[in-house]
Amino acid sequence: MDPNAHLKNFQTYLINAKRKFEERWQSPISETVTLDDFKILQTLGTGSFGRVLLVKLRKGESPFALKMLEKSHVVKTKQVQHTISEIRIMDAFDFPFLIKLEYFFKDNVYLCLVMPFVNGGEMFSHLRQQKKFTEELTKFYTAQVVLAFEYMHFIGIVYRDLKPENILLDRQGYLKVTDYGFCKRIGDQRTYTLCGTPEYLAPEIILSQGYNKSVDWWSLGVLIFEMAAGYPPFYAREPMKIYEKIVSGKYTPASHFSKSIRDLISHILQVDRTKRYGVLKDGAKDVKIHPFFKGLDWDAVLQKKIKPPFVPPTKGEGDASNFDFYEETPLKTASKNLFSKEFEHFEF
After folding, report:
1. Most buried of 104, 111, 121, 218, CB within 10 angstroms?
2. Which residues does the annotation place in the binding site for ATP?
3. Is 161 a catalytic residue?
4. Model confidence pLDDT, tens digit, residues 270-296
5. pTM to 2 decimals?
6. Residue ranges per domain, the chain?
């Protein structure tokens, strides 16, 4: 397909998508369900924040992932506004390769986010199992992340946490970017917060220079390298050593890398932002027309019409075998509504 035709079509798509986002962003989040409406099947993950459960509506068959955030933890870590922003962004997002909020509710102890259950597992797990991805598979996944970044950036949101652990695969083999904890709506402004995963941090974050969407494109370069090599380009035991390598911009391409993937990575992992693909005058177009993507039908990727090179093994939409096993423990309860004032309004 003519890449220019795709670029024109996608621009129209983005304009409509931004309008829908704005409408949703301005709308209050309504609570239409409670925990009693769901049957808990098993635990999918745990952390200091709370836990993620596999559930389904008692009056339905579709499985969901229920993320339960402990209000006490959110307040103690001073993440109230941050968490409200994450929930509202998830509620307003509507894009094929981004996780969307299906339902939201609160109880006395938890904030509860109900999302589609994406049961192919984390990209991280499959990358460790396969050691590295083929360049065909790397290209397929990269294209979806590129489109997701274009959508976010057009809306004025910087993601800031790209890594294999934050990418889920669905049972068809397509991906969903998840975890919007570091998302921030900045428009054309700069932000200075130090956040992200050490190996994926852009030089401008480390150097406290102020940044915008440039950091997402840098992290994409790191992801492309890690998918195709099986390890990240900047690695050391100590975070400070990692930061020194990142700021120097020096890395060694894997010996099996093709000429086109080497070239694409070299244009994205540019310490000098005036030379970095993704943030130059033509934006994402520089990435999309690169020889690495030669012959790729971007519209077919967006419409999920391409046969994925790899399909995770699943036994149906409710199968959780691609996730680790966790001992089941009772949910916390409280006789009164904890921190009701802090979470009374989901507005800014």
Report:
1. 218
2. 67
3. yes
4. 999 999 999 999 999 999 999 999 999
5. 0.95
6. 31-119+317-348, 123-302
